[in-house]
Every structure is written in C-alpha cells, then in structure tokens.
# Entry
Amino acid sequence: MTARVLAVIDRDCPGTEDMRDPLYFCVGVRAQFGGVDLVLRGAAVPSALVDPDARPANPQRYVRSLVRAGVQVWVDEADLAERRRADQALIDGVRTADTDVLATRWLEYEEVWFL
Amino acid sequence: MADQTRSQWDLLLIVTNDRYGSVRFGTVRRLIDAALRNGRSVQVWACGEVNRLTELAPQQSDTAADCCSAAEPCCSGGEPTTAEEIGDLVAANEGRFTWLACQTCSDGRGAGEHIPGLPTPSFSDLRDYVDKAAKTVFIGGV
# Structure
C-alpha cells in the first residue's frame, strides 16, 4: 500500500534529536500519518550510506529505523553516483531510483513534503 | 489531497527552524500576511526550537524598568518582540490566524510558558491539523 505522505529531503541531515533534522521529523510523523515514504536527494544522500566512522549522533540511525519500520526509502541514482565513495554501501533496504521516475509517483500520495 | 469540503483552515504552515523565526521571522510573517490579505485563514505549527519564539518574556531587571517610559515602552526602542508580534496577530485575527505551540517540543526543549492565547497541542495531534487544512506547507529547514 502506498503511504499517505511522500517526504523528499535534499539537504544535509545532522542526525541530531531535533525537529530541525528532517529525518528525525520523519520518525516522529511516520506513525500518525499512516506511513511515510522517503526520497533522499542531493546533500541528504550520505544519510543512506553505511559509515563506519559515524558519530554517535548520525543520520544513518534514523534511516535504519525508518527502513525497519517499513518505510520505503529511495535514493536518487544520479546524486548517489556523484556522492558515493567506491567503498560505501547503501544501508540495507534502501533502494535507488531515477529522479524523474520518482516524480511521476507524486500523484499517488496525498501529501508531498519537501522537508 | 485534503478533503476541501471539510477543511476548516485554508493553510497550515509547519515551521521547524528558528532561523525562520528569530532571525527571519519576516519569511513566516510575509506568508501569514499574504494569506490573511487574500481572505484566507492560516495556522502556524511551531515545531522544535521555534517554540522559543512565543515564550513569555523574562521579567525585566530594575535597571531595564527604570529606563522604560510611556513614550518609549521598552529599552529596545519600542520594537515589539517576535512573541508580542505573534500575540498581536492572534488577537487581531481571531478565527483566521492561530499559532500552535507544540507542547511536546516545548517540553522537550525546556521552553518556558507561552504567551496567552496560543493552543498547545501535542506532536501526536499534528495529523489532525493537517487534515483540517486545505493545504499544508512545510517550511522548516536551513
């Protein structure tokens, strides 16, 4: 079933426990909106990459948490190619998609939020 | 899309970053003014740090009180604080403008008491407010 809200994030996520972190906001709203799907683009792409040197407060924990909760998380393919180092893997469960293809799916959602 | 026939408010603005408040309150203010000027109703959901904006001002020190006068109500030269500005907007636009001070975020950040007249819903009420709005715009971020 398609979630009700599609959240699009294209800025750096600091991984802090604060509503200024859009991923933290997503964790907060997921349950009450009957599901949120997530697209990470641009500066938000590293949040979906495994980082062995991550600080305790890191955005990856929120992406893992959202995937575990059943949220569909997509990463923009072109932005990923640009920002991923050769040794960096995507967090399990995160998928990739073309930006334009993702945009055609916006109408499937009741809300599209650019966080 | 929200069910327009059941919408009680035209616009819901979700503000999560205080840069759009303390430093750039003008951004939010312009959107509020534009909505009201066009005969629309608008609610602002203050999330996270933004709840600092509507805290009751701390008591003025004796020194500050001494330099205030009727002609110049406060030492900053009479410029209203953001909290006063929001309070004035609420008072002047009853039923058409509301500033929602998220109690969950306020508690989490140890924010003080809010100025009078503001509803203080919990974060789990957000969906209800989104449902009640014909259009929701999220303008958090840096």
